[in-house]
Design a protein that fits this description.
Elements (H helix, E strand, L loop, with lengths): L8 H20 L2 H8 L4 E5 L21 H9 L3 E5 L4 H8 L5 E4 L4 E4 L8 E2 L7 H13 L8 E4 L4 E4 L6 H18 L3 E5 L2 E5 L6 H11 L4 E6 L5 H12 L3 E8 L5 H5 L3 E4 H15 L1
The structure holds magnesium ion (MG).
The site of magnesium ion has 7 residues, from loops.
Length: 291
């Protein structure tokens, strides 16, 4: 948790209080409660990729799953419905994991495939198809400005895409510059822009998010228990959906993977907070051992 500098007393008190709440939250989630969720059948595990199963890399292409995660997913597959849910395009995310027999959900819920997309048909939300061309237009626009945007990487998806500025010499300036290039044209073609970790996302304006995708996954397999794990802003919808599912009688658990820049709202709504991808891999191992 990032605490304010000494001297900012009221904030400091708040920060200590928040840290205490957080600590109670982690220790308060007893093994018994985790066991209760994991013992439900049918059970689902829904996992984000970047920052959850793979350490954040300088470029999206360099990201790799944490060592040992693939074999854990293969073991989990024998006991639970496992979904990989990512903001990446489905083919891209699935290629990183490359385990058949899992459900892959791409572009924050717009694309779905039971099994690897190279082997099984990908279902696409029909309403999204109208946004293929507008998304392409906006990414073309950024590419035209690339000489003035050093370090920016354009990652195209079926609908829109991601503009990564992690490698730019002045990330905050670059973020503002990307927004200034795209904001008005995006409004004109009815596409949405949003911020992620050193990413500006060009997205369809449909009300589709990881929370809805999580609910669809639960309904699709008639799950009685579900565990979600994620780390970034777009995972918050799924973390909040976990609480709603619990109110509806489904045994549900939200794991947040903490990094130095994790949103407070994510931490506040987590059932379990783990430290970094290594912490997530360790917890995943413990959970798979319990299945
Ligand atoms: Mg992530």
């Amino acid at each position: 948790m990032a605490c304010p500098r000494p001297g900012a007393l009221p904030n400091m008190v708040q920060c200590i209080k928040a840290a205490v709440v957080l600590k109670e939250k982690i220790t308060g989630m007893s093994n018994e409660k985790i066991n209760t969720v994991l013992s439900q059948k049918p059970l689902g595990l829904v996992l984000d990729i970047d920052g959850t199963l793979s350490p954040i890399a300088p470029t999206p292409e360099e990201a790799r799953l944490y060592p040992g995660v693939v074999s854990l997913l293969e073991r989990a597959r024998d006991h639970a419905h496992v979904a990989i849910m990512t903001g990446r395009a489905i083919e891209n995310g699935a290629a990183m994991v490359n385990v058949d027999g899992l459900t892959y959900i791409g572009t924050h819920g717009l694309e779905w495939c039971d099994g690897l997309p190279t082997l099984h048909p990908v279902e696409i939300l029909p309403e999204a198809l109208a946004y293929v061309e507008p998304g392409k237009y906006l990414l073309d626009l950024v590419e035209q400005h690339l000489p003035a945007l050093p370090g920016v990487i354009v990652q195209r998806k079926r609908f829109g895409g991601s503009l990564h500025y992690r490698l730019s010499p002045d990330p905050e300036y670059t973020r503002q510059k990307i927004w200034s290039i795209l904001e008005e044209p995006a409004r004109q073609v009815n596409m949405s822009l949003s911020d992620g970790k050193r990413i500006v996302e060009v997205r369809v304006p449909l009300k589709v998010d990881k929370g809805q995708a999580l609910r669809s996954f639960v309904q699709h397999f008639g799950l009685r228990g579900v565990v979600f794990a994620g780390d970034d802003r777009t995972d918050l919808d799924a973390v909040l959906e976990i609480a709603r599912l619990r109110q509806e009688g489904i045994a549900a658990l939200a794991i947040v993977v903490q990094h130095p820049d994790t949103l407070r709202e994510m931490l506040a709504n987590a059932d379990i907070v783990v430290q970094g991808v290594e912490g997530m891999a360790n917890l995943l191992r413990e959970m798979v051992d319990l299945l």
